[in-house]
Amino acid sequence: MTISEALRRQIIEEAGHRCEYCKTSSRLIGMPLIMEHVFPKSLGGQDDRSNLAASCYRCNEFKGARTDARDPETGQLVPLFNLRMQTWSDHFTWGNGGTHLLGITSTGRATVISLRLNNENIVEARAIWIEFGWHPPTT
User: Fold this and answer.
1) For the residues 110-115, what does the mean pLDDT come to?
2) CA 4 vs CA 10, 35, 71, 73, 104: distances in Å
3) Greatest CA span in the chain, whole angstroms?
4) What's the predicted TM-score (pTM) here?
């Protein structure tokens, strides 16, 4: 099945033109968002609305086909953040003035580490965006 352009636009618009993992705006980075399969296609995930999310290339690439990872605090294997079944603010918050994404649950922590949501490049970019009042997002 192919994802229709109308469905792609709907998902991206509903996400506010931001990656649903790291909340980076496609308008700030000048790169289009892509369709993330919450449950990977390689594991049987479908191209339907309930399994698709807006993602930046970086988050999509780092997530790959994984569905779980180790919580760095407990060492337990936990599910990664599920964009369609969980609420972002229940698992993440902004720290260090908005430059860092912090996991506040085991799922949040595992997702931050696995998707490298605080890699050096994005942290530096966030610092610049903060100076201009473009970050962190309020929604």
Assistant:
1) 98
2) 10, 11, 36, 40, 35
3) 43
4) 0.92
